Amino acid sequence: MQDELSEILLASDVIACRVEEIAAELGRRLAPLAERDEPVVLVPVLTGSLVFTADLIRQLPQKMRLDVVTVSSYPGASTESRGATIRGAVPEDLEGQHIVLVDDIFDTGNTLSLLDRLVRERGAASVTICVLLAKPSRYEVELRPDLVGFEIPDAFVVGYGLDYDGLYRNLPFIGVLKPEVVE
Ligand code: IMP
Ligand code: MG
User: Which atom of ligand 1 is nearest to the CA of 140?
Assistant: First the structure.
């Protein structure tokens, strides 16, 4: 699989260090809740945030519930977003809850903007958006993520949960696909 990459953008140890920092920062932001012994509701956006979420939550000591949501925006072998569509169940019972939306990447921002609206409509008391990656040059929405691991250039990346046509999610690092792989 590795020979299909033109470059490794973020090595696994670099990701691990940053995830530790993000967990510490998120922990600081959630400290008032932890002091009141109130659980936070973490909403991982599947499938891309699976690996990031698994690493992140094991470094967050506070009480939490996980309530996943599945969104797809890249049908099949495509690197062009077709707009976010929610697949399957949407988290309910969010009234008065403090929500952390966790995703792999804030690209155009349409996915997280849709989910931010949705959880607010369901009565969330607060919404924090936490993403591993962001591509500021691609933003199409007013909303901004609260916590960003790495700002990256406008390249299609895979690994550490991110896919192309469903593949490469299991790579432990993040790399750029060779143009000939992306047809
Ligand atoms: P957005 O709605 O444009 O912000 O796109 C968000 C979703 O598109 C992310 O949750 C990813 O699943 C996917 N995505 C965006 N950029 C990339 C990329 O470079 N590689 C893999 N998936 C991506
Ligand atoms: Mg996604």
Answer: 3
Look at residue 90 and tell me if it is in a domain.
Answer: yes
Is 8 within 8 Å of 31 (Cβ atoms)?
no
- The verdict on the CB of residue 106 being under 6 Å from ligand 1 is yes
- Where in the sequence is the domain holding 120, given as residue range(s)? 13-30+39-72+84-154
CATH number at residue 119: 3.40.50.2020
Flag whether pLDDT at 83 surpasses 80: no
3-state DSSP call for residue 1? coil
Coil, strand, or helix at residue 168?
Answer: coil
For residue 127, tell me if it sits in a domain. yes
pTM (2 decimals)?
0.95
User: Closest Cα to residue 131, out of 112, 113, 117, 118?
Assistant: 112
Angle of helix 50-57 versus helix 12-29 axis, rounded to 10: 60
**Whether residue 9 has its Cβ less than 6 Å from ligand 1:** no
Q: What pLDDT does residue 86 have?
A: 87
